[in-house]
Amino acid sequence: MADNLLDAIQLRKEFGGLVASNNVDFAIPRGSIVSLIGPNGAGKTTFFNMLTGVYKPTAGRILFDGEDITGKPPHAITERGIGRTFQNIRLFPLMTAVENVLVGMNCRLRGGIIGAIIRPPRVRREEKLARERARELLAYSGLPTRHTELARSLPYGDQRRLEVARALATEPKLLLLDEPTAGMNPQETADFIGFVSRLPDDRGLTVLLIEHDMKVVMGVSDRVTVLEYGEKIAEGTPGEVQRNERVIEAYLGKGATE
Predict the structure, then answer these.
(1) Which CATH superfamily, name and number, covers 4-81+172-257?
(2) What is the pTM of this model?
(3) What DSSP string runs through 51-81?
(4) Whose CA is closest to 160, among 175, 144, 142?
(5) What are 40-59's pLDDT values in tens digits?
(6) Distance between CA atoms of 64 and 247, rounded to whole angstroms?
(7) Which 3 state secondary structure label does DSSP give 210?
(8) What DSSP string runs through 134-176?
(9) Domain residue spans in the chain?
């Protein structure tokens, strides 16, 4: 556990009589790219939502960088270093790209409400540096000329990249990406795989992603965990998971396995 950035221990989530996550043990090694896969309804996004404080686990513990964060609210978890994107894009459509990124920086800025009203020199310097940092993150995320455009006017693939830039603005240690290539064309997907694969070396990040595209999973992951009906059914390297008969059955059906 000393080498893991995050450990989920016997994590469980119940919605009435429905068990969405059934006592799952899950670890994310520091500096790795881990994929969480499974058929629709397997409980992947529910698991993400527990890690980020959107849902409070029914049982179990979440340890992040040596601290128990179980049940903490989303803002507290963001402050501790977990950033995320969403399965359905959640940008501020009438704000520019750079303004969306600045929203992500809010948890790291020190100006406060009074400072924003009075705007002393210290706050003005911080705002200037924040805008420079936002433009840098947009360029790094593949949007070097888009910072003044409204989020809603960006092409779909660029909106996905903007969401990642906003998540990076929170200065995360762990970045959670929920189906980041959904809706992308093959070239956009290939470019995004390259982008994600560079994050551990470029930014010192650890990455956890939910993804249905197996080319993405096999191309970028150090480790893969498979869920089915809220239970972990397999875990290992991409090659090990790809050959696992139970995983094949979960995706293709028993007839295909036979």
Answers:
(1) P-loop containing nucleotide triphosphate hydrolases (3.40.50.300)
(2) 0.88
(3) HTTSS--SEEEEEETTEE-TT--HHHHHHHT
(4) 142
(5) 888 999 999 999 999 999 99
(6) 28
(7) strand
(8) HHHHHHHTT-TT-TTSBGGGS-HHHHHHHHHHHHHTT--SEEE
(9) 4-81+172-257, 94-155+162-169
